[in-house]
Write a structure and sequence with these properties.
Distance between the termini: 60 Å
GO molecular function, one term: zinc ion binding
Oligomer: single chain
Number of helices: 5
InterPro entries: ATP-cone_dom, NrdR-like_N, RNR_NrdR-like
Shape: elongated
Number of strands: 6
Largest sheet: 3 strands, antiparallel
Radius of gyration: 24 Å
Family: Belongs to the NrdR family.
Order of helices and strands: EEEEEHHEHHH
Cofactor: Zn(2+)
Strand content: 15-25%
Structural class: alpha+beta
Zinc finger (unnamed): 3-34
Length: 151
């Protein structure tokens, strides 16, 4: 690591610690030439996740967009905000764990529906009606019947 004082290219690590969030490592280094100490940080490089929309367009994953969609489905339902945030956190974590650079919006939609079904059936049906693009009452009825059969 290049010393910021004398620009020598060699240094030694004298102390390493995780940051509070455990997202990076703080290292204290000592220059082998001038003896000055300096701090560096090491972290994993984030790979932006691209969402492939139904029409083939690609856009960056937007956590707030996911949160807004779920909140609309849960509107006027007895679901605490913390629970909704937890659902979004879980989905975001699962997406990151997949280690993919691209993911289909349909896959994200299925993840949301899977979680909403366990939390609140009304919120689930609301989300499904938009996500699955119900065109008429019969599609809505079919989804309700499918939900009732699973119980």
């Amino acid at each position: 690591m290049k010393c910021p004082y004398c620009h020598h290219l060699e240094s030694k690590v004298v102390d390493s610690r995780y940051t509070k969030e455990h997202t990076s490592i703080r290292r204290r280094r000592e220059c082998l030439n001038c003896g000055e100490r300096f701090t560096t940080y090491e972290r994993i490089e984030d790979i932006p996740l691209m969402v492939i929309k139904r029409n083939g367009q690609r856009e960056f994953f937007d956590r707030n967009k996911l949160l807004t969609g779920i909140m609309k489905s849960c509107e006027k339902r007895p679901i605490p905000q913390e629970k909704i945030e937890q659902v979004v956190d879980d989905i975001e974590k699962e997406l990151n764990n997949k280690m993919k650079q691209e993911i289909a919006s349909t896959e994200i939609g299925e993840m949301v529906m899977e979680r909403l079904k366990d939390i609140d059936e009304v919120a689930y049906v609301r989300f499904a009606s938009v996500y699955r693009q119900f065109k008429d009452v019969n599609k809505f009825k079919q989804e309700l019947e499918r939900l009732l059969q699973e119980d």
